[in-house]
Amino acid sequence: EVRRDVVFTIKDYQDLWMPSVGYPTNLTFESGSAKYAGDNLRYNDSTGTAVLTTGLHKGDSYQMNTLVQKVLTPDELANVQTAAVQLPPVVESPDIVTSKAQSFAGKTTTPIAQLEAIRNKLVTSGYLSHGRASDAVPSSAGHGADRINELLERTQMVGDQEQYSSAFALMARSLGYPARVVMGFAPKIADGQSTVKVTGNDVTAWVEVAFAKDGWVAFNPTPKDTDIPQAQTPQPQSEPQPQVRQPPRSQKHDDQILTPVSLDESRVKNDKTPFVIPAWVITIGLSLLIPALLIFGPLLVIAWFKERRRKKRRNADRGDVKAAGAWDEMLDGYSELGFAVPGKSTRLHIADELQGQLPENASIHLRTIALSADDAVFSGLQIDEQHSDAVWTEALAAIELAREAVSGARRLLSRFRIRSARDWATRLATTVSLSSSSASTTSPGSGRRAASRRSKDGQVK
Question: Of 377, 420, 423, 367, whose CA–CA distance to 398 is shortest?
Answer without folding.
Answer: 367
